[in-house]
Amino acid sequence: QVQLGESGGGSVQAGGSLRLSCAASERSLGTFYMGWFRQVAGKEREFVAAVTRSGGTSYADSVKGRFTISRDNEKNMVYLRMNGLKPEDTAVYYCAAGLSGGLSIYDYDSWGQGTQVTVSS
Question: Does position 112 have pLDDT exceeding 90, yes or no?
Answer without folding.
Answer: yes
